[in-house]
Amino acid sequence: MKNFRFTCPTTFVFGKGVEAEAGKEVKKYGTKVLLHYGGGHIKKDGLYDRIVQALKGENLEVYELGGVKANPDIGLVREGISLCKNEKIDVILAVGGGSVIDSAKAIGIGRYYDGDVWDFFTKKTPVEKMMPLGVVLTIPATGSEASNTTVVTNSENGHMKRALSHECLRPDFALMNPELTYTLPAYQTAAGGVDILSHIMERYFTNEEDCELTDRQCEALMKTVIKQLPVVMEKPEDYAARAEVMWAGTMAHNGVLGVGRVEDWGSHMLGHELSAYYDMTHGATLSIIIPHWMEYVYQNNIARFVKYAVDVWGIENDVFHPEETAVRGIQKTKEFFKSLGLPVSFVDAGIDGEKIEEMAENCTKFGSVGHFIKLNKEDCVQIYQASLER
């Protein structure tokens, strides 16, 4: 196990009706709040009204910026930064899923910078601080309510989707009510579940030895999501199952699973290009990429994939044919994604392979990606090409 430093300062308030505490929590950080959200979903189900009531009940001055897309764009981020600067806003409240939270994080760091916020994502300028940020989580998926990361798309600059990590990007608090996820469409629920699994897998597939504790934590979380996700797909208002999935999403990406080990993140980098070029839901890009990434890299460490097959999927270990056991685990992963109604190939997603070279070039623009195996441009091309067909 490698040396590590782990900090997760976010306060989590979990359970039924906790969104009513939004005003009380926000007031700890100032009197002017930017209410940041996506489309009209929070207005249709009454959440918007409850949040505004909670904020105004604490005599807070509320400013609004809606319109966040599934892949948050730098244009809206810039608009939010201008609003925060001009109105001297103290704190941001992001109501939504990962896209809204990531957009809010980018606004929060841009608030204190005189240049263009995209400079942070191109590594031109280091991040130093972020505005106070609170979250009302409505979509368990990205774990952005707990993570030190934000991902933003620049559609004005060659379809670039870039991630940025810094400890100041962790929200100050997150209000998490599983009931708010009851009305999520099945596809969004499934894609969110795969996103959760992917965050665990990016840490689980490591070449680092002697990480038994975090291995077992990863396996427990994966098994929980694999068990509960079909339940919430069939019974959307099963509170117990929704609660398990929601908290799993937070635990998957608050950093605790990655301590002492080298994380991978190659699949995410490959998936980001699909989102950037085809505006795909993040979880759906991962349901395509992950099994094909597995098929491409598993021979680098067959024992790790055998462990995954046996300890996560319950596959009997064929000690005389370990490679067959490993392959069966990969196949189970692909079958699970398909059972959720998600694509596992470009064909399933209705996209062609015309942009493969361009995506691979963008993916590796700043060097190789991943750590389980370092992927260069040609490796990325081969994984994309394998992803064309089932």
Give a verbal description of the structure.
The chain has 390 residues and is α/β, with parallel strands linked by helices. It folds into two domains: 11-180, Rossmann fold, CATH 3.40.50.1970; 186-386, Up-down Bundle (Dehydroquinate synthase-like, alpha domain). Helices cover 48% and strands 11% of the residues. It has 16 helices and eight strands. It has helices at 22-26, 41-44, 47-56, 74-87, 98-110, 118-121, 186-204, 212-234, 239-253, 266-278, 282-297, 302-311, 322-339, 346-349, 356-363, 377-386; strands spanning 11-14, 32-37, 61-65, 91-96, 133-137, 149-154, 160-165, 173-176. The protein has a six-stranded parallel β-sheet with strand order 1-8-5-4-2-3, with helices on both faces. Helix 7 runs parallel beside helix 9 (239-253). It is globular. The model has no long low-confidence stretch (mean pLDDT 96).
